[in-house]
Design brief:
Structural class: mainly alpha
Number of strands: 0
Order of helices and strands: HHHHH
Number of helices: 5
Shape: elongated
């Protein structure tokens, strides 16, 4: 079980980095969106970054449950992310939405890795929590794609 727990924690660390990467992208989109769809997109991006931020706490708590410390600096969290923190679209809604859809895809991949690692470690509680987050991020993907239709 020790090897499975180590793999699970590694997957959780990557997930935490990716969640923070997506959180920052959504919050930045909330701050920077421009144009005639500003109001609804500003609100949507706000809902998105709040939901994504809340999931970071769950991921860190699961790490602590397994007796591992969560990263304790922005640099450490950023280094774990596969979402490039240095590239950011301007305030144009279309690239902001496309960027968030890509970030969401990265988070979904990480969630599935954690779910599989939790199953291998016999941690059904974490497996169930990840399934809930997968459902939530699938829903975010649908909402992002729906907003993108305004710009086709």
């Amino acid at each position: 079980m020790a090897g499975e727990t180590t793999a699970l924690v590694g997957a959780l660390r990557e997930l935490l980095g990716n969640v923070y990467g997506m959180y920052f992208r959504a919050h930045s989109a909330h701050w920077n969106v421009e144009g005639p769809f500003f109001g609804p997109l500003h609100d949507f991006f706000g809902e998105l970054y709040e939901a994504v931020f809340d999931s970071a706490d769950l991921v860190a708590e699961i790490m602590r449950f397994h007796r591992y410390y969560a990263p304790n600096s922005i640099q450490a969290v950023t280094e774990l992310s596969k979402i490039d923190a240095t590239v950011f679209p301007n305030g144009d809604p279309k690239p902001l939405l496309a960027d968030l859809l890509q970030a969401n895809t990265v988070v979904l991949d990480s969630l599935r890795k954690v779910k599989d690692a939790a199953a291998a470690a016999g941690d059904t509680g974490t497996e169930n929590k990840m399934q809930d987050l997968i459902f939530a991020h699938d829903k975010w993907a649908w909402k992002i794609r729906s907003h993108m239709k305004s710009f086709e």
